[in-house]
Each structure stands twice: as structure tokens, then as C-alpha cells.
Backbone:
């Protein structure tokens, strides 16, 4: 590659990066407007971890999704730039829709905004502002949605309208899968997941959020690659969904036994609220999801 070609590639890459940064900033401004009854920036400055987590998840979700939009073959710089801008608008809309779904369905009609500025008294007597457990779940939903959009927007093949319809369809299906898995997860746990999260149990938030992200990584793998036809893509998504859910539940059980030999996840979450243990466990599950996704 010549120096001229390298410089041209770098300048085009910078242009695409600036578009991505613009949409991150746009998401910030939209969320500022949406939560105008309280100042997010002030809460973050004051150390409100819940608000910080949900903002971090939003920004990461946009970046992960736009990485998918940037992959695949080029159709020319200006066409790629226009399509990236269109994808950015769609991604932003999808992520805010995901927040609504998380608020009113996943968390059982909890008001995320109110919970994230609410005062809580912890078991040790300390008072904190913001439900960090709920902030963690919301951040995880943003990130999980970003991975699903990454898969549906990556690759190529098909027309522009087919790519657009594919992104919309798999966003909806992805949200349904995440919600269904969230309810399955609650059914198999020996404690009330939503109640623990409502009581600001961060370990419970990490547990739910981490396994949703792990599932989305597997779903991303099922969606990546060129458009091959609606029936083929839908069948592949369905197979990967069932396969991923079963594998993650089995691996979670194994992780409970192998990484926590002297205790169990239920005790660490409900009784001990052991954030450190859950960070280790959910990182191991996410690591397994990454290996599974790239091995399939």
C-alpha cells in the first residue's frame, strides 16, 4: 500500500470516527433532554454510580452497534458516509427504545429515572444516591442491544432496504429474546431477582446484566455476515438463540460449582451481596460466550 493510499484510508477512517462520536454526543443531548427534571452531569460529578453506569452503557451500546455498521465491503466513501449516518440515527432510536423496554417490561414497571436518583440506606448503614443495581441492568441492556445491532448491521449482501428491514426485524427479535431470557433467568433463581435489584443489590444487577450481555454476544455471531435470505437468517437466529441459552445456563451452573467451590451464587448474591464474586463469575460467562460465538 502506498503512502497516499494509507493517508487516504486514515482520513476516511477519521471521518467515520467523527460521525460515530457525533452520535454519542447526540445520545447524550437527547438523554439530557429526556431527563431534564434532574441534571445527569451534576449527579455524575457528585459520584452517582447509577447515573454513570446507565450513561456508560448508552455510549458503549452506540459504539458497539456502529462498529457493525462500519464493517463489510465499501461502496465508496460518500455512500458509506451517508449510510453510516442513516445507521447512526437508527441505532440511536433503537437504543432509546431498548431503555423503554427495560424500564417498563424487564424491570417490572420500575421507574428507572426515579430509582437512579433515589436515596438508599445500605445494609451497613451507609446512605447512597441512586440504584446502582438498576443502573447496571439498564447499562447491560444498552450494551446487549449494541451487540445484536452490530451483528444485524455487519456484513453485506442484499439491498439497502433489505439491510434496513433486517436491522429492524432483528432488533425486535433480539429484544424479545433478551426479555424471554430475563424471565427464564428469574424462574430458575431461588430468590426474587427484581426485588433484589429494587433493593439496590448490585450483585444481583451484575448477575442479570452480565448474562444478558453474554447471550447478546452469541446472538451477534448468529447475525454477522452477509444477508443470505430471510428464511435462512431467521432459522439461523432461532437455532443460535436456543443453543446459546442452553449453553449459558449449563455454563453458569458449572461456573457456580467450579469458581465458587465453598459457596454458591444465590448465597453470594442475596445474603452476602458479594460484588467481587459476581464480577468474576459474569466475566467468566462473558469470556465463554465470546469463545462460543467465534467457535460457531
Residues:
Amino acid at each position: 500500500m502506498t503512502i497516499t493510499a494509507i493517508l487516504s484510508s486514515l482520513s476516511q477512517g477519521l471521518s467515520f470516527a467523527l460521525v460515530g462520536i457525533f452520535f454519542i454526543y447526540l445520545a447524550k443531548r437527547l438523554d439530557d433532554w429526556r431527563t431534564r427534571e434532574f441534571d445527569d452531569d451534576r449527579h455524575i460529578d457528585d459520584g452517582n454510580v447509577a447515573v454513570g453506569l446507565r450513561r456508560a452503557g448508552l455510549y458503549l451500546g452506540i459504539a458497539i452497534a456502529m462498529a457493525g455498521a462500519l464493517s463489510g465491503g465499501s461502496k465508496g466513501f460518500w455512500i458509506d458516509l451517508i449510510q453510516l449516518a442513516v445507521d447512526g440515527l437508527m441505532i440511536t432510536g433503537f437504543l432509546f427504545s431498548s431503555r423503554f423496554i427495560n424500564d417498563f417490561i424487564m424491570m417490572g414497571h420500575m421507574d428507572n429515572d426515579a430509582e437512579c436518583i433515589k436515596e438508599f440506606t445500605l445494609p451497613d448503614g451507609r446512605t447512597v444516591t441512586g440504584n446502582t443495581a438498576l443502573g447496571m441492568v439498564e447499562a447491560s441492556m444498552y450494551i446487549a442491544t449494541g451487540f445484536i445491532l452490530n451483528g444485524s448491521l455487519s456484513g453485506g449482501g442484499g439491498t439497502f432496504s433489505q439491510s434496513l428491514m433486517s436491522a429492524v426485524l432483528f432488533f425486535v427479535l433480539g429484544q424479545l429474546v433478551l426479555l424471554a431470557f430475563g424471565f427464564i433467568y428469574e424462574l430458575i433463581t431461588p430468590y426474587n431477582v427484581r426485588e433484589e435489584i429494587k433493593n439496590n443489590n448490585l450483585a444481583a444487577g451484575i448477575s442479570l446484566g452480565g448474562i444478558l450481555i453474554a447471550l447478546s454476544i452469541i446472538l451477534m455471531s448468529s447475525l454477522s455476515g452477509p444477508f443470505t435470505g430471510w428464511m435462512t437468517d431467521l432459522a439461523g437466529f432461532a437455532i443460535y438463540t436456543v443453543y446459546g441459552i442452553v449453553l449459558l445456563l449449563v455454563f453458569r451452573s458449572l461456573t457456580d460449582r467450579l469458581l465458587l467451590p465453598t459457596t454458591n451464587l444465590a448465597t453470594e448474591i442475596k445474603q452476602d451481596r458479594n460484588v467481587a464474586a459476581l464480577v468474576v463469575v459474569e466475566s467468566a460467562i462473558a469470556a465463554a460466550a465470546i469463545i462460543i460465538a467465534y467457535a460457531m
